[in-house]
């Protein structure tokens, strides 16, 4: 089932979570397992928030079981580009200048995703300040295309 979960669209996964067919805990564990398996070769996710994600997944599952009002993407795990400030999570912007920067607030995109019920798994690779169309920087290295490891993913992949 975990491989199947990873191939669902965000809307399909949210629908199945709300229908109690898949739990947010299952969804997060499936995504983390996939990251464990693939990220060492891809270098796609440069900062992970595993424990935070697991904690949020348990809270999300409790909300489903209680019948709380749920956001449209409740329990859906995701990653955000390392250009978007994320409160309490290292945000490098792909630059050595920000190698250890931890913002105190969320970028509006991150804020809206959280309000919709998403669960943050981590931050994705990016070029320095997103200035070139490749996921490559001196700080983070190259992100590899999953279909051809000899190619870069490109800046928005």
Can you give a write-up of this model?
This protein has 157 residues and is of the alpha+beta class. 37% of the residues lie in helices and 17% in strands. It is built from 5 helices and 7 strands, in the order H-H-H-E-H-E-H-E-E-E-E-E. It has helices at residues 2-6, 10-18, 24-42, 50-66, 108-115; strands spanning 45-48, 77-81, 119-124, 136-137, 141-142, 144-145, 148-152. The chain has a 3-stranded mixed β-sheet, sandwiched between helices. A two-stranded antiparallel ribbon has the order 4-5. Helix 3 packs antiparallel against helix 4. The model has no long low-confidence stretch (mean pLDDT 95).
Query: What is the 3D shape?
Result: globular
User: How many alpha or pi helices?
Assistant: 5
The tally of beta strands, per DSSP, is: 7
Largest sheet: 3 strands, mixed
The proportion of residues in beta strands is 15-25%
Outline the low-pLDDT stretches.
Answer: none
Rg (C-alpha, Å): 16 Å
User: What is the helix content?
Assistant: 25-40%
Q: Please write the string of helix (H) and strand (E) elements.
A: HHHEHEHEEEEE
Mean pLDDT across residues: 95
Strand neighbour order, sheet with most strands:
1-3-2
Give the termini distance in whole angstroms.
26 Å
Alpha-beta content class: alpha+beta
């Amino acid at each position: 089932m975990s491989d199947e979960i990873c191939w669902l669209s965000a809307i399909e996964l949210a629908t199945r979570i709300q229908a109690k067919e898949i739990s947010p805990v299952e969804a997060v564990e499936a995504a983390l397992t996939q990251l464990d398996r693939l990220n060492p070769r891809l270098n796609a996710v440069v900062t992970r928030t595993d424990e935070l994600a697991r904690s949020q997944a348990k809270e999300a599952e409790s909300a489903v079981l209680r019948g709380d009002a749920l956001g449209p993407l409740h329990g859906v795990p995701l990653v955000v580009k390392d250009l978007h400030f994320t409160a309490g999570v290292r945000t490098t912007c792909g630059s050595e200048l920000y190698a250890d920067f931890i913002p105190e607030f969320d970028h509006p995109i991150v804020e809206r995703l959280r309000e919709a019920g998403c669960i943050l798994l981590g931050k994705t690779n990016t070029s320095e300040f997103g200035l070139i169309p490749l996921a490559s920087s001196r700080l983070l290295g190259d992100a590899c295309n999953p279909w051809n490891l000899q190619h870069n993913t490109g800046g928005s992949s």
